[in-house]
Amino acid sequence: MTQSLQLFTSSAISLPKHSISKPFSSTAAFRFPFSFSKSSIRASSSDLNPLSSSSTSQVLVSENGSSSGGGVVSSSATREFVSVASDSTSIDVDAVTEAELKENGFRSTRRTKLVCTIGPASCGFEQLEALAVGGMNVARINMCHGTRDWHRTVIERVRRLNDEKGYAVAIMMDTEGSEIHMGDLGGASSAKAEDGEIWTFSVRAFDSTLPERTINVNYEGFAEDVRVGDDLLVDGGMVRFEVIEKIGPDVKCLCTDPGLLLPRANLTFWRDGHLVRERNAMLPTISSKDWLDIDFGIAEGVDFLAISFVKSAEVIKHLKSYIAARSRGSDISIIAKIESLDSLKNLEEIILASDGAMVARGDLGAQIPLEQVPSVQQKVVQLCRQLNKPVIVASQLLESMIEYPTPTRAEVADVSEAVRQRSDALMLSGESAMGQYPDKALAVLRSVSLRIEKWWRDEKRHEPMELPEVGSSFSDSILEEICNSAAKMANNLEVDAIFVYTTSGHMASLLSRCRPDCPIFAFTSTTSVRRRLNLQWGLIPFRLSFSDDMENNLNKTFLLLKARNLIKSGDLVIAVSDMLQSIQVMNVP
Ligand SMILES: Nc1ncnc2c1ncn2[C@@H]1O[C@H](COP(=O)(O)OP(=O)(O)O)[C@@H](O)[C@H]1O
Ligand SMILES: C=C(OP(=O)(O)O)C(=O)O
Ligand SMILES: [K+]
Ligand SMILES: [Mg+2]
């Protein structure tokens, strides 16, 4: 028998979510928090349980696995499956998810999502496919690098991969931002700066080839703002120069820490041990080039826009209204990159205004002392979970794998820490964009994630986190309480999976936020929502057309997933949906 627990508002009829606009006194007896134990779950009765109608009781089985009527899937249900499977409403699940589910079983699928930056080492169709096979959930293109045509080609290839092979790889476009950085190195992929060499940093435009030991700087005020004696740090200290002379637009610098200069590397200048922020602090977060790139991203229908060097919530709000006006209907999630002093000052309001955040440790480590980066990372990851926003930990996770086929022990420990903090996603940058071993680096993220997740689950080491209410309306509160309770029940009953039927994806996020022990199968009818859910912890997103009739939805899902051997009879699942205020516990028939 299926067991269900429902919230009722004014009658014993489940109301659609939008029909609840104010608290009803009659709900009091059913308001959460409930204390759950096996015995406190109300068994279904015909007037309460939407799954108990006679037409489908034959496909539902009791908790102990025995069937409640006929034992096998009825012929009517089989007919339904045939009609479902043969029309366009069949379920969309990609080959990798399918393989992972079969290989590891429900409970051991990977919960941490993986983002790969695409570059010359990974932009071919076969290379992209290899990354998808290896578990890439999101492909990132960094608008600092590459041409418009190159970006368009990568987007087309990822789309083709999704269309032809059933993947749901989302596309994230990352803006250049207007911080100070070097120009291209006249086509060279890198340049070596040796100790004691004199290099010229110039704001002049060089039309053809760059003179030797000359670096172009993108910020016009550079030559005026630096002073003799300042330290000039490339990429937060990978290479260090001291300013020794200013000659008009040219600044002569002595190399004091040698190293490799990479095209378009970030530049900061320091005076008396402090980051200098003069007129450069006034540079807009979104430059005019960024706006053109954003228009391009909207036109291409990218799933995520990552905004570099966010300083305040205002810029995010402005961008959101710009996108809403520009892209009627389509929905692009905005990821705020936390990588500057200002972003730390206004952290909470920035995260609240955004749809997610990235701990962009590369530039962050150039703006705050390196030893502060770990605590900032932990703080941002926790805050994002509390505010129900997905969070990505990025940069240098496996930096040595740009050149070597195995990571350092320290890198594995760093990845483990991000997984243990239960960030939604980990990101590869140079490792997948221009390194020697993109697939191997991805495989390391995958295996370390799986191992650490399992270790902490088995040891029950995760401390419960206080999850404040994030919604503002009463119906929001109901959804949150249902999700919190469903996740708690899932842990206590040790269910195999939570099923969530969600139109916007919001309810899937709320479940993901609880970080339950079991995976969350998220069913949504929109392909773009499915792609966006691919960034969030523990969600296995499926595309499936579903109706307001949960009984139908469940039958259809069981049949479709069973037909593909993704679930089996007897698996224990909890089902919730954003159409019906109920939590159902059942065994797969
Ligand atoms: N589209 C691209 N074309 C060429 N090189 C790229 C591209 N994307 C990334 N890269 C290379 O990969 C490196 C790491 O990528 P990423 O971390 O995104 O950029 P950055 O180092 O500028 O912050 C870049 O420094 C660059 O050398
Ligand atoms: C991810 C980052 O941003 P980008 O690679 O665009 O500099 C970072 O700074 O860590
Ligand atoms: K960028
Ligand atoms: Mg950055």
TrEMBL record:
SUPFAM superfamilies: Phosphoenolpyruvate/pyruvate domain (SSF51621), PK beta-barrel domain-like (SSF50800), PK C-terminal domain-like (SSF52935)
Enzymatic reactions: pyruvate + ATP = phosphoenolpyruvate + ADP + H(+)
Domain Pyruvate kinase barrel: 110-441
Keyword Membrane applies: no
GO molecular function, one term: magnesium ion binding
Pfam families xrefs: PK, PK_C
Kinase as UniProt keyword: yes
Main location: plastid
GO CC terms in record: chloroplast stroma
Family stated for the protein in its record: Belongs to the pyruvate kinase family.
Assembly behavior: Oligomer of alpha and beta subunits.
PANTHER family with a match to the protein in the record: PYRUVATE KINASE
NCBIfam families for the chain: pyruv_kin (TIGR01064)
Protein name: Pyruvate kinase
